[in-house]
Write a structure and sequence with these properties.
The protein contains 24 helices and 15 strands. The chain is α/β, with parallel strands linked by helices and 681 residues long. Strand 1 and strand 2 form a beta hairpin. The N terminus is likely disordered. This is PimR protein.
Length: 681
C-alpha cells in the first residue's frame, strides 16, 4: 500500500504515535499494547477500504458501492455513517481532548489520518525500498538487514478476510508481489555475502509456490550450485521450465537459461559468490535475474572445447554459443526463434535477430541492460549503436591469451533465421517509422500462439533501433511492454511498465511532463506515493477520476513523444485488464499527428471470443492511420527453409511435407517436431 508522505498528515500526537494498525496478516489495531475492538466484518471492511487510501478522501458513494455492491441497504448513507461512528469510538483512545479524530469527514467523503509509520504495510514498503536502494549502491550487508526487517513484519496474507471486495483483493496481490521482490532482493544480498546455504533454505518453498518468478528461481539455482548441489539446481530449472511450457506455452527467459548454462559448464560465477554485485532496480515489483557469467577461454582465446560452440537448451529455444562469445542469444515462444546456421543468414529473406524479451521480461532486441537500473519495474534497455551484428560484423580474432574478453550480458548466440515474414516486416517498419516524422500510426499483429508475432516485433525493433543508430541514436525510442495472465498482476500493468521505463531513460523530461498531473498518475505508478496527497484532488465521480487518469497518461506520453519520438510495442493484449484497454482506446486516436507509434500483438482466438477485447481492438484498429496484420502458418517452402537452416541440407522433401502438414506452418510447432525427430535428414 503506497504510503502518503508524513508532511501532508497532521503531526501525530503522543497518543496517536502509540496506535498501530496491522494488515500484513489478520487486520488488527493496538493501542498501548492492547487490542482495540474493530467490530463486525462490514465495519472492518470499511476501515480496510479507508486504510488502502491512507490520507486520501474516499467519496461516500464509492464506499457504499465497495461495501455493498449491487445490493446496498435502503438507507445506505445512514448505515455507513453509523459504521463510521462506531469506528471513531473504537479509535477514540488515540485522541486527546481538543484533538480531531483520526477518522474524519471531508467533503465528499471520509479520510483516515495516520502517520504511515503507524501502519505495518507502509513500514514494510519503506524498508523494501530502502533495501533495494542499498543493494543498488553496493551495500549488501545493510540491504540484507533492511530487507530482513521488512520480511519480519509479514505474518500472514494481508486483507485475506476481505475476498469479496476487489479493491482489497487487488491490494493483497500488490503487497504479495512486493513481498516476493523483497525475498528476491534479500537472497541477492545474501549471495553477495556468501550465505548460499541460507538462500537455498529460504527459497526452496518459494520457488515451488511461485515458479513463474524466474529471478527467484535463478537465485535458488545459483545458491544450490555454490553449495555443490548442481544436480538439484538443474532439477529446479527443469521443473520451472516444464511449468512454463505446460501452463503458458513459453520457455524460460534468456537470463535463467544463462544460469543453467553456467552451471552445466561449471563456470566460476555459478559456484562461488559473485565478486561484483549486479545492478538492481529500485522498488521493482518484477525484475529479471541477470547473472554475472563470462566465457572461459583457452590459450588462443577460443572456448575450451567444440561443445562450447554448440547448442544447448530445448528444441524450441536452443542457444548457440559462439567461440568469441559475441553472438546473440536466441529464444523462442511466439514465432520461429531458432538456432539456425550462419549460412542461412545469407539466404534471401532470412535475417539475424537478437535475444527476444520473454513474455515476462522487457528486453528489446539490440539492447543491453542499463547498469543504473530503473526506479521501478523491469530494467531499462538502451539501443546498441550501429547496425545489428551479423556474421559480417563478427570480430576478426578472439582475445589473445591473458586478455579479458569484452563481456556485456552473459552467454551469447549465433543469429537466428527469420523466414517468410519479409512483407509483414516491411509493412510494420513503414508504419512504425512514420512516428519519426510526426505521423502517429497504430498497427495490430493478430494470430495464434507460436505463429511469429513476438518474433516479428523483435525484427521490427531491431530495424528501428538500427535506423536510429544511423541517425546517432537521437530520433526514436522503442519501449516494450507485456501483459501477463494471473490474478496477481495489478491494474494498468501494461502502462506501468511504459511509464517506469520512460522515468528511467528520461528522468528529467519525465519529471517535468508528469508534474502537472500529480495524484492522477498514482494508480499507474504506486511508488509515487507523494503524488497521492500532494497532487491533484480526486473528483467524487469515480468514473470521471479514472478518465482523468487516462487522459493524464495520454498527455504525458504525447509530451515526451514530442520531445523524442516514441514507438510502443504492446505484447499479448489478450491478457490486458479492462482499465489498460480503455486507456489504449483513448490514446490510439490521439497519437495521430504526433510522433508516437503503437504496435500491439494479441492472440486471434482470444480476441475473437472475448467481446470486450474484440470491441476495443476493433476501435483501436479502425482509424485512418491503422493497420492490421493477421499472421497465419508459413508456406511449405518457408518451412523447408526453416528445417534446412536447423538440420542442414539434404532433408527428404517428404519429411518437410509431413512437418508442414502436422504443424500447419506454425514455426513454433515446426521446431517442437524437429526436436522430437532428432536428425531430420
Amino acid at each position: 500500500m503506497p504510503a502518503p508522505p508524513t508532511a501532508n498528515v497532521s503531526p501525530a500526537t503522543t497518543g496517536q504515535a502509540e496506535l498501530l494498525l496491522s494488515v500484513l496478516g489478520p487486520m488488527s489495531a493496538r493501542y498501548n499494547g492492547q487490542d482495540l475492538p474493530l467490530g463486525p466484518p462490514r465495519r472492518r471492511t470499511l476501515l480496510a477500504l479507508l486504510l488502502i487510501r491512507l490520507g486520501r478522501v474516499v467519496p461516500t458513494e464509492l464506499l457504499v458501492e465497495e461495501l455493498w455492491g449491487d445490493e446496498p441497504p435502503r438507507h445506505a448513507v445512514a448505515t455507513l455513517q453509523s459504521h463510521v461512528s462506531h469506528l471513531r469510538r473504537a479509535l477514540h483512545t488515540v485522541t486527546e481532548m481538543g484533538q480531531l479524530s483520526v477518522l474524519r469527514h471531508r467533503t465528499p467523503g471520509y479520510v483516515l489520518h495516520l502517520d504511515p509509520e503507524q501502519v505495518d504495510a507502509c513500514r514494510f514498503e519503506r524498508l523494501v525500498t530502502d533495501g533495494r536502494r542499498l543493494l543498488e549502491q553496493r551495500d549488501p550487508r545493510t540491504a540484507q538487514a533492511r530487507l530482513t526487517e521488512a520480511l519480519g513484519l509479514w505474518h500472514g496474507s494481508p486483507y485475506a478476510e476481505f475476498d469479496g471486495h476487489p479493491p482489497l483483493s487487488d491490494e493483497r496481490s500488490r503487497l504479495e508481489q512486493i513481498r516476493l521482490t523483497a525475498v528476491e532482493s534479500c537472497a541477492e544480498a545474501r549471495l553477495a555475502l556468501g550465505a548460499a546455504e541460507e538462500v537455498a533454505a529460504a527459497l526452496d518453498g518459494e520457488a515451488r509456490r511461485h515458479p513463474t518468478r524466474e529471478r527467484l528461481v535463478g537465485h535458488l539455482m545459483t545458491a544450490l550450485s555454490q553449495l555443490g548441489r548442481q544436480a538439484e539446481a538443474l532439477e529446479v530449472y527443469e521443473r520451472t521450465r516444464s511449468h512454463l511450457v505446460e501452463e503458458f506455452g513459453v520457455d524460460t527467459a534468456a537470463e535463467l537459461r544463462r544460469v543453467r548454462t553456467a552451471i552445466l559448464r561449471q563456470e566460476p560465477g555459478a559456484s562461488a559468490p559473485s565478486k561484483k554485485l549486479p545492478p538492481t532496480p529500485v522498488e521493482s515489483t518484477r525484475a529479471s535475474y541477470v547473472p554475472l557469467v563470462r566465457n572461459e577461454t583457452g590459450d588462443d582465446g577460443v572456448a575450451d572445447s567444440a561443445e562450447s560452440a554448440g547448442f544447448e537448451g530445448s528444441g524450441e529455444g536452443r542457444t548457440a554459443v559462439t567461440p568469441q562469445g559475441r553472438g546473440r542469444a536466441v529464444a523462442t515462444d511466439d514465432g520461429n526463434g531458432t538456432d539456425g546456421s550462419t549460412a542461412a543468414v545469407e539466404r534471401e529473406g532470412i535475417t539475424g535477430t537478437d535475444a527476444r524479451p520473454e513474455s515476462r521480461t522487457d528486453v528489446p532486441p539490440g539492447a543491453r541492460a542499463d547498469a543504473a537500473g530503473t526506479p521501478a519495474g523491469t530494467a531499462a534497455w538502451r539501443p546498441i549503436p550501429g547496425p545489428i551484428p551479423g556474421p559480417e560484423h563478427a570480430p576478426s580474432a578472439a582475445p589473445g591469451a591473458g586478455e579479458t574478453p569484452e563481456f556485456e550480458s552473459g552467454w551469447t548466440a549465433a543469429p537466428s533465421p527469420f523466414i517468410g515474414r519479409g512483407p509483414d516486416l516491411d509493412r510494420l517498419t513503414t508504419a512504425a517509422a512514420s512516428a519519426v516524422v510526426g505521423h502517429g500510426h497504430v498497427a495490430g499483429v493478430l494470430g495464434p500462439p507460436g505463429v511469429g508475432k513476438t518474433r516479428l516485433l523483435l525484427e521490427l525493433a531491431a530495424r528501428l533501433e538500427s535506423m536510429d543508430a544511423q541517425e546517432n541514436g537521437s530520433r526514436l525510442e522503442v519501449i516494450w511492454s507485456h501483459c501477463f495472465p494471473g490474478d496477481g498482476v495489478p491494474p494498468y500493468w501494461l502502462w506501468t511498465q511504459i511509464l517506469r521505463q520512460l522515468s528511467a531513460t528520461r528522468p528529467d523530461a519525465f519529471r517535468e511532463a508528469t508534474e502537472p498531473y500529480g495524484a492522477l498518475l498514482a494508480p499507474l505508478m504506486p511508488e509515487r506515493s507523494a503524488d497521492r496527497v500532494e497532487g491533484t484532488k480526486w473528483t467524487s465521480d469515480w468514473s470521471q477520476a479514472r478518465f482523468l487518469a487516462h487522459d493524464a497518461v495520454c498527455e504525458v506520453l504525447l509530451t515526451l513523444a514530442g520531445q523524442h519520438p516514441l514507438v510502443l510495442l504492446l505484447e499479448d493484449l489478450q491478457w490486458a485488464d479492462t482499465a489498460s484497454l480503455d486507456l489504449l482506446r483513448l490514446l490510439s486516436p490521439r497519437c495521430q499527428g504526433h510522433p508516437l507509434g503503437i504496435v500491439l500483438t494479441a492472440r486471434k482466438f482470444e480476441t475473437e471470443s472475448d467481446a470486450t477485447l474484440r470491441r476495443i481492438v476493433s476501435d483501436v484498429l479502425r482509424g485512418p492511420r491503422t493497420a492490421t496484420l493477421r499472421l497465419c502458418g508459413l508456406p511449405r517452402q518457408a518451412v523447408g527453409a526453416l528445417v534446412e537452416a536447423h538440420a542442414g541440407s539434404g532433408v527428404d522433401p517428404e519429411v518437410v511435407e509431413v512437418l508442414h502438414r502436422r504443424s500447419e506452418g506454425n514455426p513454433y510447432f515446426v521446431m517442437q517436431l524437429l526436436s522430437l525427430v532428432g536428425d531430420a535428414r
